[in-house]
Design a protein that fits this description.
The chain is of the alpha/beta class and 282 residues long. The chain contains eight helices and six strands. Strands 1, 2, 3, 4, 5 and 6 form a six-stranded mixed sheet that branches. The longest helix is centred in the last third of the chain and has 21 residues. The radius of gyration is 20 Å and the shape is globular. The C terminus is likely disordered.
């Protein structure tokens, strides 16, 4: 890594060691015809992606001591398109589950949606207005395991029906989790079409019904895990709104954010908050 002052989002040596083999293997498969290895270290490219995800800055505002937009976006897009971002994410997810003494793939997942505002400049053709939540933008849909780890993610226009989201997500769950998922918990926004589709995949979809006497936000058994994951993702400011032109880029941002979270968990590092350790509160 180049000599510069570190950013809180930088990977430590131990964290970089977790994903470096995947990046090195990718580079070996994509050698330049001229033999040129590139002007920037791969670790710094990943640091730039993580910096942008954590701070939410625009591409043109990447700090001058990190690789520029041209290089950083090239790799971000390449890894998004060929699934390398998901390979890294899955590698760490399996390690976190093993560390928690779980099998690599879960038997139960929890599904939920989150509608977020789209930033100016995001193509209108990929956005919509969620009539229930009154949010114009896009809809993130997650499937998480009992540890809150992401098993699958899709990003749709916010006006997409939860049935459409649920069916598409279940297909991804069936492919990503190696066929081990037996049960999926969903809220009442997902209808019978999702239940029927799950049955066709061998997944028992159970609708969690809230107690009508409860008001406000009340954590549901096991279902609260997905809400916790959404809360963790929002700590990454690039995910507070949807700034990406392509929904695939939005999904990639989720994978990178969770990769960052899991790398910290695996190495026992604390996630930096907005609070300064030297701030005196009154």
């Amino acid at each position: 890594m180049s000599e510069r002052e570190p950013y809180p989002s930088d990977l430590s040596d131990e964290q970089w060691a977790l994903i470096e083999p995947v990046i090195t293997a990718w580079k070996d498969r994509h050698r330049s015809v001229s033999g040129h290895q590139g002007a920037y270290a791969m670790r710094e490219i990943v640091n730039a992606i993580l910096y942008q995800g954590r701070t939410g800055c625009q591409w043109a505002y990447l700090p001058h001591d990190l690789p520029p937009k041209s290089a950083t976006y090239y790799y971000f897009a390449a890894w998004r398109d060929d699934g390398t971002d998901q390979v890294i994410h899955e590698l760490l997810r399996c390690q976190v589950r093993e560390k928690a003494r779980r099998l690599e793939d879960p038997t139960l997942v929890v599904l939920d949606t989150q509608s977020v505002h789209a930033a100016a400049g995001v193509p209108a053709s990929t956005t919509g207005r969620d009539p229930a939540k009154r949010v114009p933008g896009r809809k993130r849909v997650l499937a998480v395991d009992e540890l809150g780890l992401v098993i699958a993610v899709i990003v749709l226009a916010a006006n997409a029906h939860d049935n459409t989201a649920g069916v598409t997500l279940l297909d991804q769950v069936a492919g990503n989790a190696g066929g081990t998922v037996e049960k999926a918990l969903v809220d009442q926004g997902f209808k019978k079409q999702v239940v029927a589709h799950g049955a066709g995949l061998g997944i028992d979809v159970e609708t969690v019904v809230r107690n009508p006497q409860e008001t406000g936000f009340v954590p549901q058994p096991k279902g609260w895990r997905v809400e916790q994951t959404y809360g963790i993702l929002i700590l990454h400011r690039r995910l507070v709104r949807d700034y990406e032109h392509r929904p695939a880029s939005s999904a990639s941002r989720v994978y990178w954010a969770m990769t960052h979270v899991m790398a910290r968990r695996l190495t026992g590092a604390n996630t930096t908050t907005w609070r300064d350790a030297h701030t005196v509160t009154t």
